[in-house]
Amino acid sequence: MHLTDQHAWTNRWRRYHPAEKLLLAGGLLLLSITLPPLTTAPVVLLVVWLATVIGAGIPAAALARFIAVPSAFLLTSVPFLVLSVSSSQGIAFSPSGLETALRVVARSLAAISSMAFLTLTTPVIAWTPLLRRLGVPQAIVEIMLLIYRLIFVFAEQAVTASQAQAARLGYDGIRRSLHSLGLLVASLLERSLARMRRLEIGLAARNFDGELRVLQPTYALSLWRLALIGSTLLAVAAVSLLGNQLLAKAMT
Amino acid sequence: MHIMEGFLPPLHAAAWTAVSLPFVVTGARRVVRIVKQHPHAKLLLAACGAFTFVLSALKLPSVTGSCSHPTGAGLGAILFGPSVMAVLGCIVLLFQALLLAHGGITTLGANVFSMAIVGPWVAYGVFKLLRSVGGALTVAVFFAATLGDLATYLVTAVQLALAFPDPISGFAGAVVKFAGVFALTQIPLAISEGLLTVIVINLLTQYSRDELDELAFTAEVAG
Fold first, then answer.
1. pLDDT tens across A47-87, in order?
2. Which of A144, A166, B126, B194 could cross-link to B144 by cystine, CB 3.0-4.6 Å?
3. Is A83 helix (H, G, I), strand (E, B) or coil?
4. Which CATH architecture has domain B10-210?
5. What tens digit of pLDDT does each residue of A176-221 get?
């Protein structure tokens, strides 16, 4: 999670307007789940690779690692779609299930990689303020930003604490593991709240009246880039629909 | 029990988003009202949200040897109240999808419904019910967390079955298929989470009364 976030802050495209990257990622995501998956997925994967690795300069290994975890989950779900259960025949293999599974895996992979592009190129902080435009209340946006910041602080505490417990054989056997985990969670909550209280005092000392004023970096929208993104999305749609027609013809 | 990005067909994804939206909007309105009255509640809510995220990333040991993550729905509902959990859960699920590729944007609605709405409400209902008939705190907490967990899995199974009905036996067959698989793996996990939540609440009531009182304040304001 830390590594991913590091890429988001340091890649070549970090200074581009987050709305541009959001448009590309969101557009690809929308195309991935609405167009015929078998022909869309390869094109989307290609565009994501071009944008993330060639464009933003993120190592291909980082992209692969980010996609690998959900992909493993995806593969474990295939048997449930392929195998069919009924009272008369018991468990059986179904050809139509195989086709469904293939489509779902392709669609999911394309969708996951579209979001991988966003995660690896754009820090959460950059695009959350845009939620205001969608009508999300200011208070909710601020809570989101605070949660994002605190996640990293608390995660570090959790990792350190569980390492300390593991070093004292705290995770030996199920009973002790549960007990250790309980201790960890309880102390994590207590520390979280203690930290929150210190934050509260610190902010009160700075005349906190309910609004967190932070400097937002200014980004400039580039018409040229927007046009490029638009035409890329159109091209992806065209190629995948054309490919689908060819595929259908080849099948018959 | 996250449904992955792009796993659900577009129509299902949109429908579940529409189902979840009113709960999240009502919760968000409530949060905005709380924050207006008590500006510091913003920090408290943020701490609760970040805590829920980290909690859901911890590994939960299970009797069968498999490992999974606690949903935190039961603990969150008891500590923070279910309507606030809908908002915090939604934010946490969004961040999980973006930072960990766990869950997804297109399946956010479906995941919010199972994990941030049904799970917490079932847990909260069970907790209140058992407490009102005079159940011991530990018993109420255990059943709240365990049943909240199971309700989450059941909803996920139904969501998957609706999206992928079995080619031979249809929706009912698919429910049996998905719920059957979950039953094998998730019942022990739900029991583990129940036990874990009991341990956590016990420790908190022993050592962190002040914190609990502070949270009870938000839970009360939030309903």
1. 999 998 888 888 889 889 888 888 887 887 777 777 776 66
2. B126
3. strand
4. Orthogonal Bundle (1.10)
5. 888 888 888 888 888 888 888 888 888 888 887 767 777 777 888 8
HSE of B125 in the Cβ direction (CA atoms, 13 Å)? 10
What are the structure tokens assigned to B116, written together?
């941030």
Report CB contact under 8 Å: B57, A158: yes
Q: What is the mean pLDDT of each run of 10 residues along chain B (223 residues)?
A: 84 93 91 82 84 80 60 82 88 89 88 92 92 89 91 88 80 80 79 87 80 64 45
* Closest C-alpha to A111, from B201, B3, B72, B177: B3
Residue A225, φ and ψ in degrees, nearest 5:
-65, -40
B57, B100 Cβ separation under 8 angstroms: yes
- HSE toward the beta carbon, residue A212, CA cutoff 13 A: 22
Q: Which residue of B has its CA nearest to A204?
A: B40
- β-bridge partners, B68: B60
Tell me, letter by letter, the H, E, C secondary structure of chain B.
CCCCCCCCCHHHHHHHHHHHHHHHHHHHHHHHHHHHHCCCHHHHHHHHHHHHHHHHHCCEECCCCCEECCCCHHHHHHHHCHHHHHHHHHHHHHHHHHHHCCCCCCCHHHHHHHHHHHHHHHHHHHHHHHHHCCCCHHHHHHHHHHHHHHHHHHHHHHHHHHHCCECCCHHHHHHHHHHHHHHHHHHHHHHHHHHHHHHHHHHHHHHCHHHHHHHHHHHHHHC
Interface pTM, i.e. ipTM:
0.87
CB interface of A with B, residues 176-205, below 8 Å: 177-179, 181-186, 188-190, 192-193, 195-196, 199-200, 203
Contact A89, B72 (CB under 8 A): no
Class of residue A246 by CB neighbours under 10 A (exposed 0-12, middle 13-18, buried 19+)? exposed
CA nearest neighbour of B93 among B159, B219, B5: B5
| CB-based contact, B65 to chain A, within 8 Å | no
Please name every residue paired with B61 in a beta bridge, in sequence order, or none if there are none: B67
Q: Read off the tokens for A41.
A: 């997925």
Residues of chain B found within 8 Å of residue A210, distances taken between Cβ atoms: 35-36, 39, 42
Q: How far A252 CA lies from chain B's nearest CA (Å)?
A: 23
